[in-house]
Amino acid sequence: MKLPELKIGEKIAKIPIIQGGMAIRLSTAKLAAAVASQGGIGLIAASGLSDEELRYEIRLARSLTKGIVGINIMVAARKFSQIVKTAIDEGIDLVVAGAGFSRDMFGLGKESGTPIVPIVSSVKLAKISQRLGASAIVVEGKEAGGHLGTDTSVRDLIPDIRKAVDIPVVAAGGVLTGQDVVDLIKMGANGVQMGSRFAASEESNAAPALKEFYLKAQPEDIVVIHSPVGLPGRAVRNPFAERILKGNVPPKQCDNCLKECAHNFCIIRALIRAEQGDVETGLVFTGEYISRIKEILSVKEIFRRLTAEVAAIS
Questions:
Q1: Residue 41 φ then ψ, to 5°
Q2: Sign of the CA dihedral 8, 31, 290, 304?
Q3: In this predicted model, what pLDDT tens digit does every residue of 187-219 receive, in sequence order?
Q4: What angle do CA 173, 175, 177 make, to 5 degrees?
Q5: CB atoms within 10 A of CB 90
Q6: Record's Pfam families (predicted)?
Q7: Cα-trace Rg, the chain
Q8: Is the pTM higher than 0.70?
Q9: What is the helix (H) or strand (E) element at residue 262, kind and residue range?
């Protein structure tokens, strides 16, 4: 099979693969640029970054690739609008937004001509997104890592959402192989978003200890916790996940980073600890099928294998 191109706004990705924007600081300029250079769309995870850090990452990515680079940002972040404005000011190619839904972001995109791509998990939100001016939507199923908006498989969501909207539909959740890509495109998706496979890549900004932890994960290690954001989140079982599954781990200090926070634990600090390699007291977000990843590969090799697998499918 020959993969179709993915057009979002005026940008055309030769390979219809978006790299998930994994926070905090897993998806930085190096990873986003590597994916963009292979013909996909690379995302910088903007959640948890200051304006100065985000500007630096966008400029660094621009110096490393001529490909398509966007940001991923949590709508739940208190500085959501400011982060989006900063990215647009830096000439970002697109904005992908999840962990909530914002009508305001479409206005920001319209003013600048920047494609806005919300992450949705229902026909209703897909239709609303199109009506408000979304350039595309990412449809995320239960298989995804991090914050979850549904308990329905992406393979069950795609057909109905494809019928409901005319804009590009990108499937996310549990995508690891060329066969997964082909299956979802045949179901009506215009492209796919992949997170876990790129989290476990050489260019991922995850510490070596975290990457090794990914490789050790077994299916029974995957748990769903309640995030302070107000959504369930999929993570790998470790001592910290065990603690928050049993009860609250109230933060000793609060950075006031979320619009609304349950304060059952500090998600920003927990994710940062994991990114830095603390797999005991950090929160390790992951997709449902992380156990299927057996080695750390370069982004170039990931794309080579995916495209070869796709080409072998009739």
A1: -115, 120
A2: positive
A3: 999 999 999 999 999 999 999 999 999 999 999
A4: 170
A5: 18
A6: NMO
A7: 18
A8: yes
A9: none
Q: Report the interhelical angle of 154-164 vs 178-186 (nearest 10°).
A: 40
β 169-172/41-45 pair status: unpaired
Percentage with pLDDT > 90 across the chain: 86
Average pLDDT of the chain is 95
Q: What is the pLDDT of residue 226?
A: 93
Question: Distance between CA 162 and CA 214 in Å, rounded?
Answer: 33
Question: Measuring CA to CA, which residue among 166, 160, 164 is closest to residue 135?
Answer: 166
Model confidence at 2, pLDDT cuts 50, 70, 90, reads confident
Number of H helices, E strands in the chain: 12, 13
Angstrom distance (rounded) from CA 201 to CA 181: 18
Token digits of residue 205: 């900004």
Summarize the confidence of residues 131-154 as an average pLDDT: 95
Higher-pLDDT residue of 257 and 28 is 28
CA 109, 114, 120, 123 dihedral sign is positive
Task: With beta carbons less than 8 A apart as the criterion, state whether 235 and 284 touch.
Answer: yes
Rounded Cα–Cα distance for residues 129 and 119 (Å):
9
Q: Which residue carries 């390699």 as its tokens?
A: 277
Q: Residue 258 pairs with which residues in a beta bridge?
A: 77
Which tens digits make up the pLDDT trace of 42-73?
999 999 999 999 999 999 999 999 999 999 99
d(CA 155, CA 261): 31
